[in-house]
Amino acid sequence: MKHLLATDGLDPRLATAVLDTADELKKTLLGREVRKLPTLRGRTVVTLFYENSTRTRVSFEIAGKWMSADVINVSSGGSSVGKGESLRDTALTLAAAGADCVIIRHPASGAAHRLAGWLAESGTAVVNAGDGMHEHPTQALLDAATLRERLGTLSGRRVAIVGDVLHSRVARSNIHLLTALGAEVVLVAPPTLLPVGVSALPVTVSHELDAELAALDAVMMLRVQAERMHGGFFPSAREYSVAYGLSEQRLKMLPEHAVVLHPGPMLRGMEIASAVADAPSSAITEQVRNGVHVRMAVLYHLLAGEEEK
């Protein structure tokens, strides 16, 4: 694996190998007082974030450090980007300085692919940590890891992705990955929050959350991305919550084994009730925990897998 830019087109065997590696890493670190592996010693990993992040950035940093890599954080506000330097020049500078892997989050869709093209000759690996409304592949991988852990398998499972699908790169990456791994995906949202061309995707579309709950194995609530909205996509926060929020009453309508996911940050009370977010069926904290191991596995496959073989 040279880069991880998207789940669209990702070989299901490779995705499964990454998930299996994450499982092995999790078992290896379980119970260790010092959670440190020498796997990436001597490697340099750079996180280049043009958008704010807590979960993704921290988990990548922890993942790199647990594998003994040197991790350097670069933010747009504290670098030459703030002086007007182009993304291309920033990328070439990082590669010239010795970066073995650049993890990028950028507001422009396609930024990670452009970066990979510019760095092709340098041999520097690129990981897409979220590009505009396009994709967020490691989030989909950690979601899949969490579902496998809770449900045993993804094949034949019915997963609903609920809410602001239109603006969600998490939804796009999950659609591609979950269907490739054998799951059935249902998109539940008002018509205004569904992307153009949704009928071409390998999914079922519904506008009635209550009608879908009884047949689900998992429900993934999405954040309403108000910062990307220009105009009225729904009447009010209260009406959105009534129609599409996961309340305690709706939680009772789910099968007993069903899993509740949310990529975060959560808007408690609107997208999901606090009692639901903290319920035993919720795997939201597990998603964060698994995110570290999945990102360790991604770095392993990018930077050490071939050498280990």
Automatic annotation (TrEMBL):
Chemical reaction(s) catalysed: carbamoyl phosphate + L-aspartate = N-carbamoyl-L-aspartate + phosphate + H(+)
Subunit comment: Heterododecamer (2C3:3R2) of six catalytic PyrB chains organized as two trimers (C3), and six regulatory PyrI chains organized as three dimers (R2).
Native organism: Amycolatopsis acidiphila
Keywords: Pyrimidine biosynthesis, Transferase
GO biological process: 'de novo' pyrimidine nucleobase biosynthetic process; 'de novo' UMP biosynthetic process; amino acid metabolic process
Protein name: Aspartate carbamoyltransferase
Entry annotated with the keyword Transferase: yes
Annotated gene: pyrB
Entry binding sites for carbamoyl phosphate: 55-56, 105, 136, 139, 264-265
